[in-house]
Amino acid sequence: MSYEEEKSKVVGVIPARYSSTRFEAKVLADIMGKPMIQWVWERAKQVKVLDELIIACDDERVAEVCKGFGATVAMTAKGHASGTDRIAEVVNPLDVKVVVNIQGDEPMIHPTMIDSVAREILSGSAISVATIIKKIEDPQEINDPHVVKVVKDKNDFALYFSRSPIPFLARNSDITAPVYYKHIGLYGYSKDFLFTYKNMAPSCLERTEKLEQLRILEDGYKIKVIETKYNTIGVDTPEDLEKVKEYLKQEKT
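Structure (tokenized):
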């Protein structure tokens, strides 16, 4: 069956690029006998709200591995600037309402995260994009620029994302222990908004912080944030991979 013939309501797409500046072929990196992308796929497969789950890749080496463990694979152009562009290529011909962007380098992603962003868009509450946040428990993460922080309003919409510690704790503040949240890069979009987003010009804040989601806020749209109790470790470096391996070993015991 061709993708044009699919009539899915909710589709999950895992962009899986072979090349990576800091960690070449990381989606194929071994974690306890399985490639990282398989860990992501297996967790996403547990999500009942997904009518279809597709791995979007640009390299036959990734495609072969993914087909080997039973995944549906879509080959995409190599020149995409972002995972969002890769996802847009895959879902463009599909008759879907909701698209969930599931990062291929998040092997600890919890199925409830995927479920919650999809259901938020399906809820009919006029929300076009939703994402996941978690309270920071490790103080070292607050000042780590690789951990993206987020502040939200009383209705759980994002006010800002930053690599800097936000909120900044002023010296004379009457709050001694503000709550810090980190952003987990999982997104649910309405299909219509995904293409609106794709066609937005890169924004000043986005280019400054190197955070693509700031384009949405700077263009005047809202991002719903959903808190999770589950922690994740995104794999950007070989050191991150070792942290994930250690965490998953402990989870198995």
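Residues 1-7 have pLDDT under 50 and may be disordered. The chain is about 30% helix and 20% strand.
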